[in-house]
Amino acid sequence: MEWEHLFDDLEGQLAAEWEAQRVALDAESERLRIAKLALHERLRSTVEGAAPVVLELLSGDRWQVTPEALGADWLGVCAEGDPRLRIVPLDAVESVAVDHGTMLTSLRVQTSAPALRERMTFGFVLRDLARRRIPVQLGMRSGTSLHGTVDRAGADHLDLALHDAGEQRRARTVQGFRIIPFAAVLWVRLTSGSADLLG
């Protein structure tokens, strides 16, 4: 009879040890998975959930936004009270303020395949803006803002024809030209109907 209790006790201890090891392995596996998680993957869930966030830029700007699109190296957002799309290079983002639920959701394993859009680079989008001749406003790292139309975009820079906000690019409205490295750009805001640009 005592042997039965002893074996039951040993079996209970062994089962508890195995469970503790399984929990420890699961926890370590989760830590390793999160260690490989990129910002891009976490931002995907904010776009999919259309969760409002506060985007804090390196310039100190803070925008209450709804993420609309995610590219290879940029985030497309609409700011509260302004339906015009803003394209923000990810390296211009200082932080993304989210609620606790959004933060936890962003840690989940993504089951859907990334959209084709997620392979579009910042340069690709700028080349499309040049092709469509869409007037834009550029927020610069220096704190200045430029209005104009992207004439062309290279591998790491763009050519901007400067003109007043609300104007279309015409020879008579152009006030000058700038060659601007992508690294100098904090954001690009489309100044006309733009929500379907990245659809």
Provide keyphrases for this structure.
199 residues; ten-stranded antiparallel beta sheet; 4 helices
Description:
- The model has no long low-confidence stretch (mean pLDDT 84).
- The N and C termini lie far apart (73 Å).
- The chain has 199 residues and is α+β, with helices and mostly antiparallel strands.
- The longest helix is centred in the first third of the chain and has 34 residues, at 2-35.
- A hairpin with a 3-residue loop joins β7 (145-153) and β8.
- The chain is 31% helix and 33% strand.
- A ten-stranded antiparallel sheet has the order 5-1-2-3-4-10-6-7-8-9.
Q: Order of strands side by side in the largest beta sheet?
A: 5-1-2-3-4-10-6-7-8-9
Describe the biggest sheet? 10 strands, antiparallel
The end-to-end distance, rounded to whole angstroms, is 73 Å
Mean pLDDT: 84
Gyration radius (Cα, Å) is 25 Å
Number of helices: 4
What class would the helix/strand composition place it in?
alpha+beta
How would you sum up the global shape?
elongated
Unreliable spans: none
Q: Beta-sheet strand percentage?
A: 25-35%
| SSE succession | HHEEEEEHHEEEEE
Counting DSSP E segments of at least 2 residues, the number of strands comes to 10
Helix fraction?
Answer: 25-40%
